Amino acid sequence: MLTLLMNYEELITITFRDGESLEGVLSYPEYIGDKRGVILCPPHPHFAGNMDNNIIKSLYLCFSEKGL
Question: How far apart are CA 26 and CA 59, in angstroms?
């Protein structure tokens, strides 16, 4: 039997000293029992990349199912 845990999501913005910022989504499972994690970065916007990239979305779903 497969039990899926609920994932929580928060929109985050990381601002650097030079004023540039990086927007993202912090996603974590209902239960955080260990210190594993994954950072997914889409292609650069200058190359038509964004967070809605189909490969990034597929990887996100795969890792979420595994509780990462």
Answer: 14
- Which amino acid is present at 4? L
Is residue 30 within 8 A of residue 3, CB to CB? The reply is: no
Residue spans per domain, the chain:
7-65
Residue with tokens 């979305």: 57
10-54, pLDDT tens digit by residue? 888 989 999 988 888 888 777 767 667 788 888 888 888 888 889
Residue 25 in contact with residue 12, Cβ under 8 Å? yes
pTM metric for this prediction: 0.64
Using CA atoms of 47, 48, 54, 57 in order, give the dihedral in degrees to the nearest 10.
Answer: 90
